[in-house]
């Protein structure tokens, strides 16, 4: 097999994502992984005897042993991640006997399933259109009805607590974080280890989305999924944030100022990774991000990122998307050059 096949497959997958996006159908690998994760939760909770997690009058009705909950979460994680890694790898090995084209198509489709660039951009643009519609209907400010509905598809926070500025801020923060989850991480793992690693990363990230909540049901059960996602994103988050800072001049910013703001605020987040892309985007776009955030389980008092920056509005979403495109281009260029350098050596 040509040692450049993985790079060809990555570019083919990127092309498919930009042309087609992330179509919704029952057999989509990520949807199958999500369904498997939900079934794995039921099986593991039942196996380890921790099915009950009801809450009565604000307190836990039945105190479940923390260890059993964590073990159940770990078991669910392995039930999902093992096939997520093994099936793409087995398919690749089997198709090697059939020549270049079958394995190229297989690898391209696997990597394509791990990206979600076009869908992210479409959702962010829908938030922009929704906020503009709110203004036209005189529902801007404290009651952006359409904007709240649109941004709820991107973020897990309580949309009813958001005004127009909050909707724009939530959307931009989601774009910044997704520059890692939807682009840099799967791309980095595909380049370093191959298509199977890209889908494995998507499985890890999907389980964090499902289980990584700090509520009564998942505080302990989702511990392993959340920590695994932190580990998987550790290097890509920092790489993507640096790439974003390098793109500052392409969107009217200053590389030096973006770098200074990034260095100052990159740790101003409870997550070990999310603060890096958010601080980079805040620095490049000179925006005030972060701050106290309402989630379904209550208020989380997050620190502000670049509080001296401009309060986000609708126009800043378009700027964030332009930065995302440049960020993606630089990420692809640097990783491709690294791949070629190692291939030559």
From TrEMBL:
Compartments, record wording: Cell membrane
Keywords: Cell membrane, Cobalamin biosynthesis, Membrane, Transmembrane, Transmembrane helix
GO cellular component, one term: plasma membrane
Membrane topology note: Multi-pass membrane protein
UniProt pathway annotation: Cofactor biosynthesis; adenosylcobalamin biosynthesis
Example of a GO biological process term: cobalamin biosynthetic process
Residue intervals passing through the bilayer: 71-91, 187-204, 323-344
Recorded GO MF terms: ABC-type vitamin B12 transporter activity; threonine-phosphate decarboxylase activity
A family per Pfam: CobD_Cbib
Main location: membrane
Domain of life of the source: Bacteria
Reported function: Converts cobyric acid to cobinamide by the addition of aminopropanol on the F carboxylic group.
Family membership: Belongs to the CobD/CbiB family.
Record's protein name: Cobalamin biosynthesis protein CobD
Biological source species: Gracilinema caldarium (strain ATCC 51460 / DSM 7334 / H1) (Treponema caldarium)
Gene that encodes it: cobD
């Amino acid at each position: 097999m040509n040692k450049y096949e993985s790079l060809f497959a990555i570019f083919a997958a990127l092309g498919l994502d930009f042309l087609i996006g992330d179509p919704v159908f029952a057999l989509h690998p990520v949807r199958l992984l999500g369904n498997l994760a939900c079934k794995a939760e039921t099986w593991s909770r039942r196996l380890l005897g921790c099915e009950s997690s009801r809450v009565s009058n604000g307190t836990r009705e039945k105190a479940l042993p923390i260890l059993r909950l964590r073990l159940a979460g770990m078991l669910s994680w392995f039930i999902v991640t093992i096939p997520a890694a093994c099936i793409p790898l087995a398919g690749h090995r089997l198709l090697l006997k059939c020549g270049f084209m079958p394995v190229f198509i297989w690898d391209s489709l696997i990597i394509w399933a791990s990206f979600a660039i076009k869908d992210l951009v479409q959702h962010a643009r829908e938030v922009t259109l929704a906020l503009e519609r709110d203004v036209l209907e005189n529902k801007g400010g404290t009651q952006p009805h359409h904007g709240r509905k649109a941004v709820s598809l991107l973020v897990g926070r309580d949309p009813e607590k958001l005004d127009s500025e909050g909707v724009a801020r939530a959307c931009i923060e989601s774009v910044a974080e997704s520059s890692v989850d939807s682009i840099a991480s799967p791309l980095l793992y595909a380049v370093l280890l191959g298509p199977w690693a890209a889908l494995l990363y998507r499985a890890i990230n999907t389980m964090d989305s499902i289980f990584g909540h700090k509520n009564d049901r998942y505080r302990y059960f989702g511990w392993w999924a959340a920590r695994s996602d932190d580990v998987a994103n550790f290097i890509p988050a920092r790489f993507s944030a640096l790439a974003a800072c390098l793109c500052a001049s392409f969107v009217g910013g200053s590389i030096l100022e973006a770098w200074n703001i990034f260095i100052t605020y990159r740790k101003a987040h409870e997550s070990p990774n999310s603060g890096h892309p958010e601080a980079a985007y805040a620095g490049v776009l000179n925006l005030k991000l972060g701050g106290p955030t309402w989630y379904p389980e209550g208020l989380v008092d997050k620190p502000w990122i670049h509080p001296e920056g401009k309060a986000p509005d609708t126009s800043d979403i378009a700027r964030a998307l332009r930065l995302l495109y440049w960020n993606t281009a630089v990420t692809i260029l640097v990783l491709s050059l690294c791949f070629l350098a190692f291939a030559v050596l």
